Amino acid sequence: MASLLQPDRVVYLVRGEKKIRAPLSQLYFCRYCSELRSLECVSHEVDSHYCPSCLENMPSAEAKLKKNRCANCFDCPCCMHTLSTRATNIPAPLPDDPTKTAMKKAYYLACGFCRWTSRDVGMADKSVASGGWQEPENPHTQRINKLIEYYQQLAHREKQERDRKKMARRRQCMPLAFSQHTIHVVEKYGLGTRLQRQRPGAPLSSLAGLSLKEGEDQKEITIEPAQALDEVEPLPEDCYTRPINLPEVTTLRQRLLQPDFQPAGASQLHPRHKHLLMKRSLRCRKCEHNLSKPEFNPTSIKFKIQLVAVSYIPEVRIMSIPNLRNGKESQVLLTLTNPVENITRVSLTSCEENDPDEINSTAKVLVPSKELLLAGKDAAAEYDELAEPQDFQDDPDVVAFRKSNKIGFFIKVIPQKEEDTDVTVSFKIRHDFRNLAGPIRPSEEGADTAAEAIWLTHHVELRLGPLAS
Amino acid sequence: MAKKTKQRNHTGVKIATGAVVCVESEIRGDVTIGARTVVHPKARIIAEAGPIVIGEGNLIEEQALIINSYPENIIPDSEVEPKTMTIGINNVFEVGCVSQALKIGDNNVIESKADVGRNVILTSGCIIGAFCQVNTCEVIPENTVIYGSGCMRRVQTERPQPQTLQLDFLMKILPNYHHLKKTVKAGHAAS
């Protein structure tokens, strides 16, 4: 029966640019717009970078310089696990007295999962525990850097042209939306404008005002175009006859993780520095408020701002399904949970004919017509013995049980289609929402009124499962 | 019961001097255990279809199962020649592994919850990764590492080191907390 609690059984419809159906646990709620938001209708911004194994924070500029890789940690080139440094004692001649040998510590990298060691590729043991390991140098680095510089300059020039045109049209008091667009565009040639800005003579950032310095002191970078060669290196003669040594051949995944070299043999697989992960913050695209902002510290999983939908919208869950038969009416038990602390009134309506949102349902549903009352979530209720249980006078035909902030209620489902697919039903849920985030306006009567309740409607789809055979 | 008397040519367990075998381990059948081998409590060594000979310096951890059983647990009606299971020196059988391989060489490591079938022959320096099930019918070449959920393989350049430190430590500490099975000198040499 745990399969009934799977998150994708009950999905809510998000009316954004695209109509997205997602379980409530994956949605956010913008309490300023009073609408549900999914991951596709928010803008994602990078908050901070950190290394997943040493949990070291790294400022974004430094991360870009190091190509988003950690300086201390390595990845196994064979299985992509994190490498650990191991030490052995080797006899080494003392520097003072070459005849005597003393035990010196030598360090090597080893993978705990696939037992790869740095000695497998011929890397010598180092005498320092960390910092001694070098990544092999890419022979084409110079050419690539030159190309990048050239294209950066080109992009910068294009951006200036665009800004000049835009300034004529847009007003100065909309810098935020304006700058976001230009940031997305300039980033297309990597490394971005931040490093360029530090160069003397380069124009200042276009975020604040615009400085239209045309006479820049940057020297023109020219590149030679790549030259096509007629002759290619011939294949070795025993290419077809040499037997393949299978353990030596690298897998595609191992090869493509090192795009600089793409070694074909396992003896050339060198370890690479570990990729950094990032924490992201989400922002509503309409009102530009933050929906999710994690804490800066990589060891903390909490959020500074966390406007997730499950803490504002009542959640529908399937509790039990009887055997569903085509054309026959069955009762399905659902639960509604109230996440907020005040009493919420919920009313359900079935979808009308020709509702544009109802495309998936394969059954007719009869929802209770009365309004359902949900008690507020009271965290201290279980400890408070003297509290009187609130008397809600539920209709036993509609409400099966009531437990603190949750009720179980029945809906009647009549499957319409005989096909093999799952029976899906949809209905609209309408509840009142008190926006406690709004500014508290002092009322004229002097008493503090509760926040205004607005009514929100959501479209919910449930996947009940296959017809009983 | 009749089956047991047929097998009991060399009865019982022969434990060499220097081996540390805890009383809580379950050893059934004709088993020979070499010197400096440590058998943890709750390890099971079961010799049903033939004797088991375990060499020196092995480390058999808790809930490991070394079993010489009939293939697919079908006891043949007619008398089948009992096959001896030989285990070499310096092997490690980690927690919860199951080994039915008839021939295991030296310096192998069978990691936790790995399952080695009867038709596999481990040579030297092989490492069977955690939870890997190897039931092919083959000889695993030396220094092979089998790892990952897809049982990927690779060859390592050096064999795993014998766990001498761990063995010494256990041989000192285990007798402080567990009763040990008494050593029984081998009457006839194991076949």
TrEMBL record, chain A:
Pfam families: Dynactin_p62. InterPro entries: DCTN4. GO terms for cellular component: cell cortex; centrosome; dynactin complex; myofibril; stress fiber. The keyword RNA-binding does not apply. It comes from the Eukaryota. The keyword Transcription does not apply. Coiled coil: none annotated. It is found in: Cytoplasm, Cell cortex; Cytoplasm, Cytoskeleton, Microtubule organizing center, Centrosome; Cytoplasm, Cytoskeleton, Stress fiber; Cytoplasm, Myofibril. Keywords: Acetylation, Coiled coil, Cytoplasm, Cytoskeleton, Isopeptide bond, Phosphoprotein, Ubl conjugation. Its main location: cytoplasm. Subunit of dynactin, a multiprotein complex part of a tripartite complex with dynein and a adapter, such as BICDL1, BICD2 or HOOK3. The dynactin complex is built around ACTR1A/ACTB filament and consists of an actin-related filament composed of a shoulder domain, a pointed end and a barbed end. Its length is defined by its flexible shoulder domain. The soulder is composed of 2 DCTN1 subunits, 4 DCTN2 and 2 DCTN3. The 4 DCNT2 (via N-terminus) bind the ACTR1A filament and act as molecular rulers to determine the length. The pointed end is important for binding dynein-dynactin cargo adapters. Belongs to the dynactin subunit 4 family. This is Dynactin subunit 4. It comes from Astatotilapia calliptera (Eastern happy).
Automatic annotation (TrEMBL), chain B:
SUPFAM superfamilies: Trimeric LpxA-like enzymes. The keyword Transcription regulation does not apply. Its main location: nucleus. Keywords: Cytoplasm, Cytoskeleton, Kinetochore. GO terms for cellular component: dynactin complex; kinetochore. GO terms for molecular function: dynein complex binding. It is found in: Chromosome, Centromere, Kinetochore; Cytoplasm, Cytoskeleton. GO terms for biological process: mitotic spindle organization. InterPro entries: DCTN6 (IPR027777), Trimer_LpxA-like_sf (IPR011004). Part of the dynactin complex that activates the molecular motor dynein for ultra-processive transport along microtubules. Belongs to the dynactin subunits 5/6 family. Dynactin subunit 6 subfamily. This is Dynactin subunit 6.
